Amino acid sequence: MIDFELYQQVQDFYQDYAMSIDSEQWDKWIDFFVEDCVYKIQSRDNFDNNFPLSALALSSKGMLKDRIYGITETIYHEHYYQTHVVSTPRILKVTENHIESEARYAVFRTKQDGIAEVYNVGRYIDRLVRVDGKLLIESRRCIFDNEMILNSMIYPI
Amino acid sequence: MKIDTKLENRKLSEIPFWAYTDESVYKKELERLFYNDHWCYVGLEVEVQNPGDFKNTLVGERSVVMVRDDEGSINVVENVCAHKGMKFCREKHGKIKDFICPYHQWSYDLKGNLEGVPLLRGMKKDGKVQGGMPKTFKKSAHGLTKLKVAIRGGAVFASFNHDIESLEDYIGEELLGYYDRVFSGRPLKVLGYNKQRIPGNWKLMLENIKDPYHPGLLHTWFVTFGLWRSDNESELKMDKHFRHAAMITTRGAGGKDDQTTNVSSFKGNMELNDKRFLDVKYEDWWNGPTAVMLTLFPSVIIQQQVNSLSTRHIQPNGKGSFDFVWTHFGFEDDSEEMTERRLIQANLFGPAGFVSADDGEAIQFVQEGCQQKPDDSVAIIKMGGIEIDKHTDHMVSETLIRGMYDYWSKKMEG
Question: Where in this chain does the record put each SnoaL-like domain (chain A) (predicted)?
Fold first, then answer.
């Protein structure tokens, strides 16, 4: 059953997640996931046509940690800011421990030159799990419409 | 500024910045390289498996459609209606019976022949014929522009020039074996696509994959895990025209040695939390090398990096920008485990790749630098000498880039 309390909790969850990325608190981002998790950033074209390839496909918390090490230590790139605007969630299914939900997002990228661009637009398709009263991500798929990525994609969405 | 595309041999090691920034040079490249005398990559046969299946793609800047017809042949036609010039095919892929331009319903068969013109003989009204095309109008003279098509081992190439040499001669005997190694005819399976728009001149991407000097420096993962670095056993090869090239390497042990500990990108203490990223499994068809990067001038790079396979299609859209389209694939008879491995290793490549993301960044910033410098500035391509070595058995050389510019200047002359 979806009551206001649950709705509020899921809504907070989406906003907190976005804030962790926009403020580049990468450890906090990792902690949104359970150990055995799936995180994918995939084009809508691949998703709709059942092609398994993603731009980024991580399938454990260890891989998330490796990604953060990559963006902070090994992948050469020019730094950019991200601002996520995330819609209110659509809660699709609730069971005792799991919630299936979706939300739409738009990510704006601002590089050193100060011009904000629409960088990535799509939806989250999520499976959340309740652990000790807290919501965590079992699976998050970021399915983006704008198939043509503006050069490189360094940070998580 | 006078643009002289002739590069004297002694100057092959100095590439003028205007090669990346001049509009007239770029226009000439489209005409002479992409639209004439060169086979350009359009896709994989498996992308149009059944009659009527089509894929919308590009040769240079020109939109073309690759389609399988009822006889099972693959045709490539230009996506411009012979009537008013409308770019009629708007879907990226799909299935059709014939091509119909929605504007005036001119229809074409899957070979590009004009079949139907509504009101061709006019309209009868009150015993009179109104309108219609002139008697001299011949449907046979108004088909879609047809490209010549060549297929080898599952990959499809097209050319606007119907008198072009065979694809085999085009690739050249020096490199054909490396091509056939990936495209042996073993049925392929597409895993999906990644696309990125890189704000740099298209040649910079070919240079990047003809440049074995940078991977062991820029790419931490390659250095640290021994996938690609200067002390690996390697070869650099070219076709007789020096336009195409293969960089061939065999993975070393990784870890420390005298050379690499000095490289700032080397991370001696780096350990993966999840080792599956580099769970490399030797495949028999490799016949030795763990990576072969093949550049087929001017349009495609064929990648085998351990278990990750892709074509990287170069689609220029201006002197300072190109779209880079990655088609990742495996083989139809891959085990589920192998498919999973290829997908996990795909994380190293593409616009978000642990390794490749920084190539796009580097190319963008090179383009920015070339655009701001005076016209007589040059890039220094002297690693390994100033001549072209037809065969190099190490990675400390930019010979493949010098080779490409030797060919390029010959084609661009005059």
Answer: 5-141
B44 closest CA partner among B339, B349, B302: B302
> B282-291 — which CB contacts under 8 Å span 24+ positions?
B283/B307, B285/B181, B285/B184, B285/B186, B286/B181, B287/B181, B288/B250, B289/B248, B289/B249, B289/B250, B290/B227, B290/B249, B290/B250, B290/B251, B291/B227, B291/B228, B291/B247, B291/B248, B291/B249, B291/B250, B291/B251
- The rounded distance, in Å, linking the Cα atoms of A88 and A9 is 11
CATH of the domain at B99: 2.102.10.10
Run of H or E residues at B45: none
Dump pLDDT digits (tens) for B272-304: 999 999 999 999 999 999 999 999 999 999 999
Query: Residue B219 above 90 pLDDT?
Result: no
Reported in sequence order, the residue ranges of B244-305 that DSSP labels E, i.e. its strands, are 245-250, 291-296, 300-305
Q: State which residue of chain A sits closest to B328, comparing Cα positions.
A: A53
Among the partner-chain residues B93, B199, B273, the one whose CB lies closest to the CB of A66 is: B273
Name the residue facing B358 among A41, A73, A76 (closest C-beta): A76
How far apart are the C-alpha atoms of B182 and B184, rounded to whole Å?
Answer: 6
Residue B282 located in a structural domain: yes
Q: What is the ipTM of this complex?
A: 0.97
Asked whether residue B76 falls in the same domain as residue B207, the answer is no
Q: Model confidence over A37-53: pLDDT tens digits?
A: 999 999 999 999 999 99
A4-34 pLDDT, tens digit per residue, is: 999 999 999 999 999 999 999 999 999 999 9
